[in-house]
Amino acid sequence: MTGPGVARDEHAWDRTIRLWDAYFAVAWAATLAFVLAAAHPALPVRAVAAALLVPLVPWYALVGRRLLQEDPPDQRQALRYLAGAIALFLPSAVLVGETRLMAFALVPQCFMTLRMRWTLVAVTLINLAPVAGWALLWHPGIEDLFANSLFAVVTFVFSVVVGSWIVRIIEQSWERAELIAELDASRHEVSRLSAAHGALAERERMAREIHDTLAQGFTSLLMLIQAVEAELDHDAPQARRHLALMDETARQNLAEARALVAGGAPADLAGASLPDALRRLAARHEATLEVTGPVRALPAAPEVVALRSCQEALANARKHAGSSAEVGVALTYAEDTVTVSVRDDGCGFDAGVPCGGYGLAGLRARATEVGGRARIRSSPGDGTTVTVVLPVALPRSTP
Fold first, then answer.
1. Which of 7, 30, 152, 249 could be cross-linked to 184 through a Cys-Cys bond (beta carbons 3.0 to 4.6 Å apart)?
2. Following DSSP, what letter does each residue of 66-101 receive, concatenated?
3. Inter-residue contact 268 to 280 (CB < 8 Å)
4. How confident is the model at residue 2 (pLDDT cuts 50, 70, 90)?
5. Residue 397: pLDDT band by 50, 70, 90 thresholds?
6. CA distance 207 to 241
7. Cβ(50)–Cβ(35) under 8 Å?
8. What are the two backbone dihedrals, phi and then psi, of residue 38, each rounded to the nearest 5 degrees?
9. Which of 74-83, 290-299, 362-371 comes out lowest in average pLDDT?
10. What's the rounded Cα separation, in Å, for the pair 399 and 393?
């Protein structure tokens, strides 16, 4: 059984050749019975007509049956087959009028195997030629001739009209089959592209997470190592303090790695509020934190973006402004937004010149994902300010 959404590989008539076999057998047997039971002409003539019908069976079984299953049928083979079938049919139909019942088995085969021009020629021969031959051979009366001619014309018109209608249905079915195949291919392509897009989005997300956590932590460790190397000989207490920061940073990196693998919240936010997480983060980077506005719990998404944005901005400040620069973090709670701002009084840079790094681009992408915006203000010699504004849902008031 074909499941929903799965295109069928074959048409209904492709699977019903046995029905056509049965139809041909019934039409042939009925014709033979009518021929042998006819009142006219004499029995020997009817026997000859019946004998002429017998070769139609092997001719159909060996040649016609295969043609009906071809897609599309070979036109030369179809013409040869139908020419042979008509050659066997016409003499019998001329001898005995009842033989014309066999036309109901031959006409559909014409429409199924031949192009329309040759189909009309074959249908005309099958319907009209037997009456003309029968009239020339037996010289019937006017009434019999009129009745047989009228019957032949009616069957001819019926054959053409119904056959043409069936052909149009078949053509439409082929068009629909092609559309279904195209839609099925498009569905698979969309599924593939969706999976590829999902994988790409996940890679980008992981890249941002690694950049904003592990990479920044390792950068901090390198900077602390350089500071310790410079302080070992002349400022041992400061070196020990930096070693303690290195230990804390390494532990924090390990916690971030575990949270990243587990897919949980950032380690700084685990069991802590956003101000507490930013306070610990600012302390590790020797920055100050100022919190304004009514502090409240926020949805997880803006809190994570605020924390990661602050991590990126602080790491950039220490990397580019230097360890001697003063760095301050401001966290502002408004009615429907939360704003994180990181400023330093370092050397600054030309904000109008595109930078090739990943950090600021990732920061902007994070803010955009939750409907926020990021703004970087800087100029040479005037420090840098990174501001991220994130929308937050208003708390519901209880009646």
1. 7
2. HHHHSSSPPHHHHHHHHHHHHHHHHHHHHH-GGGGG
3. yes
4. very low
5. very low
6. 31
7. yes
8. -65, 155
9. 362-371
10. 18
Residue 320, strand partner residues: none
Measured distance CA(278)–CA(286) in Å, rounded: 12
- 150-194 pLDDT, tens digit per residue, is 988 998 898 888 888 878 887 787 788 888 889 988 988 888 888
| Residue bearing the bigger pLDDT, 90 or 270 | 90
Cβ of 331: how many Cβ atoms within 10 Å?
Answer: 21
SS (H, E, C) 160-195: HHHHHHHHHHHHHHHHHHHHHHHHHHHHHHHHHHHH
- Provide the CB-side half-sphere exposure for 151 (13 A, CA): 14
- Closest Cα to residue 256, out of 320, 200, 304? 304
Measured in degrees and rounded to the nearest 5, phi and psi for residue 154 equal -60, -45
Query: Cα angle at 309 between 307 and 311, to 5 degrees?
Result: 70
SS3 of residue 277 by DSSP: helix
Nearest to 392 by CA among 371, 362, 375: 371
CA distance 362 to 355: 12
> Distance between CA atoms of 384 and 374, rounded to whole angstroms?
13
Helix (H) / strand (E) containing 362 = helix 359-369
Query: What would the DSSP string read from start to end of 249-273?
Result: HHHHHHHHHHHHHHT---GGGTTS-
- Looking at residue 62, the DSSP 8-state letter turns out to be I
Residue of 213, 203, 196 whose CA lies nearest to 250: 213
Q: What is d(CA 85, CA 80) in angstroms, rounded to the nearest whole number?
A: 9
Q: What Rg do the C-alpha atoms of the chain give, in angstroms? A: 44
Residue 359 has pLDDT above 80, yes or no: no
Tokens of 300: 């997880």
DSSP 13: G
Residue length of the chain: 399
Half-sphere exposure of 216 (CA within 13 A, CB side): 26
**pLDDT over threshold 70, residue 260:** no
Q: Report residue 308 as tokens.
A: 């990661």
Look-up of token digits 């019957």: 151
H-assigned helices in 96-141: 103-113, 116-138
Q: How far apart are CA 139 and CA 248, in angstroms?
A: 117
Euclidean distance between CA atoms 249 and 244, whole angstroms: 9
Residue 239 amino acid letter: A
